[in-house]
Specification:
Keywords: Glycoprotein, Glycosyltransferase, Transferase. Residues 160-338 form the Glycosyltransferase 61 catalytic domain. The chain has 403 residues and is of the alpha/beta class. The chain has helices at 6-28, 40-49, 132-135, 160-176, 200-203, 243-253, 282-289, 304-312, 349-356, 378-383, 390-401; strands at 36-37, 56-61, 64-67, 72-73, 86-89, 92-98, 101-103, 108-110, 116-117, 142-150, 185-189, 212-215, 220-229, 266-269, 295-297, 316-320, 336-341, 360-365. Strands 2, 6, 7, 8, 10, 11, 12 and 13 form an 8-stranded mixed beta sheet that branches. Strand 10 (142-150), helix 4 and strand 11 form a beta-alpha-beta unit.
């Protein structure tokens, strides 16, 4: 009998499950939210005027300014989003709403009046009235007579980067608030099979698995009280994460590091086993880099403590864009990094991490392929494979080895 691994089974079953769930909900479900509150603070002020009891709002980290450096790149000038170096960081806060609801894998908080708390969750590219909880039918809310803390985030259970910078820091904010001791259950994205090995990261910050309500795409609960936090990214610039996020992660997880027995100061992170965003001429790239001391690494072969230890001792890193570069968080100040992008997809997230960690950061653009015969969709642009220009790679290596 042919055995099918868990990831393949999940991918085969998911479309069927989604189809039948959607069909059922269209007949018997309900839209969770109608209209929205612009922010938790505005909702709290409104309810305080009505003398509603059980409310709470606490600023954990006050607003401030942060500065980062522009990246190195061929030609010296990056796109506009890489030229902004001054950022206003708004207050990071926690809030409590009695008899609130939580819906969707994004951790959308819905007030008792049926309005979405807009600033407490994120659904990429959608205005509040376009959010899933305002347009799609969900199952009727499951009543939970407990205080529930929201730690879910976009791709929080399916992407290593988002787990680190969007989910875990929300736990930090909750723990710094006066509401932490009241929380009995945590609302969190269901982990995909490939990330289940990371569940212990939650328990290390005080969230045991037995205290988690694992939600899927159609999660919908009503709690005795809901405790939630602000998001870690900036409004309109979710890629920018403030310095406190990384200070928290380093203080929590660096003690778990398993440093390689043999030093590996120069790393090339390979995506050759990935289904997208592979370096097509990786053999040529490695033929050039390995004589210079760079060692190829496949992060999927390493445990979390091994990844932390590997990056903690790294001095020079070259890698195509991918979630594994969230491990830059563990690098020591002064390390250098070259990120290699697809020709038309330049996300800023690892430029930010590198700067916040005191690393020197640069990037290369892959070459456009001449045989491209159709207009790429947004997803194809994000997932496009990469062809590295060897002359530009040599220039990047020269920058890495400069003083």
């Amino acid at each position: 009998m042919i055995k099918i691994n868990a990831k393949i089974r999940h991918n085969l079953w998911r479309p069927l499950r989604r189809f039948y769930t959607r069909m059922f909900l269209n007949l018997w479900g309900q839209i969770p939210a109608k209209n929205y509150w612009e922010s938790a603070q505005i909702y709290q002020a409104h309810e305080c005027q009505k003398k509603t009891t059980g409310l709470g709002y606490q600023i954990v980290i006050p607003a401030h300014q942060e500065t980062i450096m522009p990246p190195w790149t061929i030609g010296g000038v990056g796109p506009p989003t890489y030229q902004q170096t001054q950022f206003h960081i708004p207050d990071a806060y926690c809030y409590q709403i009695p008899h609130g609801r939580i819906a969707s894998p994004y951790g959308d908080v819905i007030a008792p009046d049926g309005k979405l708390i807009y600033d407490g969750s994120k659904e990429s590219g959608r205005q509040p009235q376009e959010r899933s909880v305002c347009t799609l039918k969900f199952p009727r809310a499951q009543v939970i007579k407990q205080t529930v803390g929201v730690i879910a985030g976009v791709k929080g259970g399916s992407n290593y980067y988002h787990l680190l910078v969007d989910v875990l820091p929300r736990i930090y904010l909750l723990k710094q608030s006066p509401f932490w001791s009241e929380i009995e259950l945590f609302y969190m994205n269901q982990f995909l099979p490939g990330l289940t090995k990371l569940k212990p990261l939650l328990s290390l910050v005080g969230v045991p698995e037995k205290a988690i309500f694992w939600t899927d795409a159609y999660g919908h609960i009503q709690a005795q009280s809901v405790v939630a936090t602000s998001l870690t990214g900036l409004p309109g610039m979710s890629y920018f994460k403030p310095r406190w996020v990384f200070e928290f992660l380093r203080s929590t997880y660096l003690p778990q590091a398993q440093v390689p027995a043999t030093p590996r100061p120069k790393l090339y992170i390979s995506r050759s086993r990935a289904s997208f965003r592979r370096v097509l001429n990786e053999a040529e790239v490695l033929d050039y880099l390995m004589p210079l001391g760079y060692q190829p690494v496949w992060l999927e072969d390493l445990s979390f403590p091994e990844q932390v230890g590997l990056f903690q001792q790294a001095e020079s890193i070259i890698a195509p864009h991918g979630a594994g570069l969230a491990n830059l968080i563990w690098c020591q100040p002064g390390a250098k990094m070259i990120e290699v992008f697809s020709p038309e997809y330049l996300p800023e997230c690892y430029w930010v991490i590198a700067n916040q960690m005191g690393l020197a950061y640069g990037y290369l653009l892959g070459q456009k392929q001449l045989n491209q015969w159709h207009i790429l969709s947004a997803q194809e642009i994000r997932n496009h494979h990469i062809w590295v220009d060897m002359v530009e790679l040599a220039a990047a290596v020269a920058w890495l080895t400069s003083g």
